Every structure is written in C-alpha cells, then in structure tokens.
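I need you to check the entry underneath: sequence plus fold tokens. Let me know what the token row says about the fold.

>
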Amino acid sequence: MFGSKPGAKNTIDSLIGITTRIEGDIHFVGGLRIDGHVKGNVIADDEQSSMLVISEHARVDGAIVANHLVVNGTITGPVYASDLLELQPKAKVSGDLRYRALEMHHGAIIDGTLTHVDEEDRPGLKLAASNG
C-alpha cells in the first residue's frame, strides 16, 4: 500500500457500532473502525502499524492519532496521521490536520489547516480532554 511501512497491518480488529456512544479516550493497537459517536481522544498506541476508519455515520469529538486514517464521517478536533490520511467524500473535519501523505476526495470539508510532516517529525499535537 502507498506509503505503508513493511509489515504494516491494514486490517480492522475492533468495531464501535453505529448505536454505540463512548465518552472518554480510546487507545487501540492494530485496526479500529468507528461507526458510532466518540466523545474523547482516539489514539493508536502503536502509531507505526495502526489503521483507523471513521465511517460516514461516525462522529469523533476529540484528537486523533494514527498511522493510516480513513475519514468519511465527522471529526471535531486535531488530527495526526503519521503515514496516510484519506479524506472520503462525506468527511467533515473541524481542526488542524497533520499528515505525511494526503488523499482528498471531492466533497470532503476541512475547517482548519493542513500541514505536511516529514517522516522524522513527531506529532506536535497537544491532546486535550474533551470538555462539554
């Protein structure tokens, strides 16, 4: 896969269903798909081989850190994709985005800055607790 490191895993290990609402931070390893609502930060503990999918029905209110991020839902908060950030047609992001490689489809909406980072750059992202 483009930009993926050798041995990178691109499978989904866990699912947060469409009727599920989570309040609090989520830490994951491997692949995670969110169809529901998360009010908190979503952080890949192993950022070098993680994949996060935010479906068109999903909403995340908080910061996101992952290696490969696919967005087709709504995010309110800063985003850091250490490898690839894919913004699908129904993606709506309110927050600054940092990425190494970007794929943006027609229809995706961004309210924030897009910043390219080199491979040696680490996230300058300050994770803030979700308030309200």
